[in-house]
Amino acid sequence: MTSIDQFLKIDLDKEWEKEYERLGALYNFWGAILAALFLPLALLVEMRLPKADPDWWYLFRLAPSLLIGLLLVLYRLGYVRHDRMMQLTGMLLFTSGAYWVNPDEWLGYLIFNATLFLTIPLVPIMRPAYFVLNFVYTIVINITFFIVFNEKSFVEFWTQRIAALFLVGAIVSYTMGIARYYYFKNAFRHKLVLQKALLSLEEKNRQLEAFQAELREKNEELRQQNEEIMAQRDEIEEQKRLIEEQNQHILDSIHYAKRIQEAILPKREELDEALKEYFVLYKPRDIVSGDFYWLLETEDDLLWLAVVDCTGHGVPGALMSMLGYASLNNFVLRHPVTGPAAVLEHMSKEIPYLLRQAGSQSGDGMDVGIVCIDRRQNVLKVAAANSPILYVKNGELHKIEGSRRNVGGSNFRSIDERFKEEVIHYRAGDCLYLLSDGYQDQFGGPKGRRKFGSRRLRELLQSVSHLPMPEQGKILEQQLENWMAEGQQKQLDDISLVGVRL
């Protein structure tokens, strides 16, 4: 006996056998009656259908019904157990269902068997072994009838459109039938345990009543202590309520800031129209992000694209991203721009001015990768501020280091160092990648102590560059998640990676 059996002082298996007999006598008896009535009804429904062989059709619709009736009589006389009767009833039903009224008409066959599959989880109560036996019989008899009556091969059965549906339906139906058996069994066992537990609780209550006289003397002291505790609890709950309220206000404000930040990002329709084939992997570490990506198409048919990584993440990074967006957008739209390097030069002057970094120790700045795409001449103009840009040409990955200085921050005084600009002639099918450092700096992997690394990222990009861009994006995201999960690490920084097929 199990520990539960010892607790209940009864044999749960024996009690379940009694309950199984009761449930089976009810469900299986009426289930067999319904099965006996189902086949004549199916015969009436199929009466007008064209038939390959009417004699066989009558035989497989009426004979099983008569045999089921015989099983019911034998059950009532005590010669057949209820579960054996239901198991044989199921075999007779699926024998009837395996016969195709017309080899060229599969819909009626599918509806007939689907109806049988629907009844398996609802009607019979049988041991799992019976369900498994009937499942095997169902598959074998359907394949056999298909070969014999349709004069086709075993392989041709599995090439039929309905073969997969039939197999899935059989697996699901019989699995649910087995699950239903265990559901009834476990529910009954839990019921017995609950009843015993209730009896045990009643016994404990009687014992507790015996101690009430002694407890009354201590209740007053406990009441006073309880009043003090309640007063302290009320104070703590009030403080908790105030903290939660303040926290909710802060979260509401941050979520509203997220909506504002998302408004500056390019809409999907704009990206689809301008880039055609691309992916965007954009994963803020917090609700709002210090990274953003930027897209602008000018009247002279130039396409500008940038990925910007601002100092910090969360709310401080988001504020910096708004400054970066305004600086980029305003300059390109309102001034005659010669190339990406000119944009970075402008930002390297405007951002320190807006942040009033002159004479301060502020290190706030931005890493920027920016490109200008001339689609008429198939030319890329590329400039980077401490943010390498990658592109794949003829299957080979190239890295554009750009300038080592960033925009603003501690390097804003280094105005003597000009931003570098490179011109690349591209061909249709070349790939371009702009990214922040969040992906390559993410810790994970074995023991969670290593960064993903720029080299591993470059190798990954080169290995997937031949794939469609959306698929590349999915692979990159999955690789990142696997890397973090393996090392049980959370995301450490905002992550942005934009890929475009030129």
Could you characterize what this model shows?
This protein is of the alpha+beta class and 502 residues long. 60% of the residues lie in helices and 14% in strands. The radius of gyration is 37 Å and the shape is flat.
Through-space gap between termini: 72 Å
Low-confidence stretches: none
Mean pLDDT: 85
Strand content: 5-15%
Spell out the helices and strands N to C. Answer: HHHHHHHHHHEEEHHEEEEEEEEEHHE
User: How large is the count of helical segments?
Assistant: 14
Extended strand count = 13
Helix content: 55-70%
Largest sheet: 6 strands, antiparallel
Structural class comes to alpha+beta
Task: Report the radius of gyration as a whole number of Å.
Answer: 37 Å
Q: So what's the overall shape?
A: flat
Short description:
With 502 residues, the protein is of the alpha+beta class.
What's the helix and strand layout?
Elements: H1 3-8, H2 12-45, H3 54-77, H4 82-97, H5 107-119, H6 128-150, H7 154-159, H8 161-210, H9 212-264, H10 268-275, E1 278-283, E2 291-297, E3 302-310, H11 314-334, H12 340-355, E4 365-374, E5 379-385, E6 389-393, E7 396-400, E8 407-408, E9 422-425, E10 431-435, E11 443-444, E12 450-451, H13 454-464, H14 469-486, E13 495-501
Antiparallel strand pairs: 1-13, 2-3, 3-4, 4-5, 4-8, 5-9, 6-7, 6-10, 10-13, 11-12
Helix pairs in contact: 2-3, 2-4, 2-8, 3-4, 4-6, 5-8, 6-8, 9-11, 11-12
List its salient traits.
5-stranded antiparallel beta sheet; single chain; 6-stranded antiparallel beta sheet; 502 residues; alpha+beta
